[in-house]
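Collaborator request log, item 7. Partner lab (contact: R.S.) asked for a structural prediction of Amidohydrolase to inform their binding assays.
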Amino acid sequence: MTSHTAPGDSHRTVLLRGGEVHSPADPFATAMVVERGHIAWVGSEGAADSFAEGVDEVMDLEGALVTPAFTDAHVHTTATGLALTGLDLSAARSLPEALALVRAHREARPAAGDGVLLGHGWDADSWPERRPPTRAELDDAAGGRPLYLPRVDVHSAVVTTALLDLVPGVTALPGYRPDAPLTDAAHHAVRAAAHRAVSPEQRTEAQRAARRRAASLGIGTLHECAGPDISDEDDFTALLALAKAEPGPRIHGYWAEHISDEKGALRVRGLGAMGAAGDLFVDGSLGSHTAALCAPYADRADTAADRTGTLHLDAAAIEAHVVACTEAGLQAGFHAIGDAATAAVTAGVRAAAERLGIARIRAARHRVEHAELLTPATLAAFADLGLTASVQPAFDAAWGGPDGMYARRLGAGRAAALNPYAALLRAGVPLAFGSDAPVTPLDPWGTVRAAAFHRTPEHRISVRAAFTAHTRGGWRAIGRDDAGTLVPGAPADYAVWRTEELVVQAPDDRVARWSTDPRSGTPGLPDLTPGRPLPEALRTVVAGQTVFVGPNE
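Returned to partner:
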């Protein structure tokens, strides 16, 4: 890819030509003009000649693909950066390997310079031992240091004795067990203690690292899902300030604090949040046995106290939150995974609609994060109430299938009902795709592939629908219908890709065959068949400003 002038800033006029431009304005477009941070024109190579003399820069795409930049609709930015720059256990294949990584991490960091050790990503379900490390094993590997190691889903954690000693009263909190992963309030308390040890300088570098990684993957926008049980106000406001001050992906922030009145709404708005939404926990996660279920977990003993998980908010609390947010002009949103949790959300939102009118509820575009286990009734309620499903297809890729963690937790029958993307789309429920990084990595094309090749075939959607959910869907989730697509007037958020032949992929072969007919006007996308190489980002642009250029460009 070559440019006839040096790259300019967002006020320059740029003509991109000689490639493939993915645009509904012209399915056969090969060129695009960007002016003052917005798309000014999309069209054919021949028509591009008329613009060539009047622009500040001409970029020869040399056959590359131009698409809208991705939006990741659910991210924990600082935690993602800490995982990128610190101890990552996601690749550990056994318990001994994980402990060896902890030991090496500790030895590389003298206590005086880094008092609390932080890690992420262990998943005992993927290890031959099928158990997490004991506290004694961790104490030994960490050399007596404070250590915080959340499970891959970040809804439970194993910690060392030294970290527990920093949290007075933790042993009396819900979720504390002497030699098992901590959940609920006990987990939140040790997480807060661990994160307090992160210096402002470490935090800023972690945030920069996460934004750099996102930009290198063609992601132009991140939805930060913060809150008092996840991070802290200083982390949240510092991230928003950083995104305004430095080039990189946009940040739209959500603060997951339960509110019930105007005072609470003003507090959330004062933090710079778009809504009291994101990870406002109605329940936990399937991996940690804390997602709220209507029927018991399949792998929980009859004597277990938490056989159906934990419901943190009931319908009445959800109703109060939705009413307060709607009246204040804020988005409300909830983390809900199990069928008991999604049922509580729809019951609460329905009650709010009865108080305020369903038109106001629909117009507010309230959100539900994850929304994994839905009944036909809750799915229909999502559509009726105008709820956006902010979902993570990589969860199915990681834990779905007949031999996956979901099947062990729920049994094959219930597990096969998880993440029903095709049914959500058929019902008219808006989808916004994300990663929940660092739970699963930032990986937009991998996310699109996971939805198109869902482990349960009836839940698969077309590559085009999945791509839309990961681009335009994220913008619609914040109330913007004029972005996330390359049409005149839209923000110039785009990515340039090196990829192979463009195709049309859909679960129904009849649809795929028709879509490749020129009469359908369907623009192609990269072939995402499992095993094929994913596209490589050459350049990422946000509001007309280049925020990433590949090493060979």
